[in-house]
Amino acid sequence: xxxxxKVPKRGWQxxxxxxxxxxxxxxxxxLHHGAAGKKADRVRRMYAEKYVKN
Length: 54
Hints:
Distance between the termini: 8 Å
Oligomer: single chain
Order of helices and strands: EHHHE
Shape: globular
């Protein structure tokens, strides 16, 4: 089974940050640089729910 990604619209990092209750910088660090921690885990989980289809 392939995983499909939805293409996020412009401003997705700020939108995800607002929903996750963190900053856009936290979103960038979590998704692009693999940061660890509670907020980063929440960001990755929310990203997967919103933009990754199984």
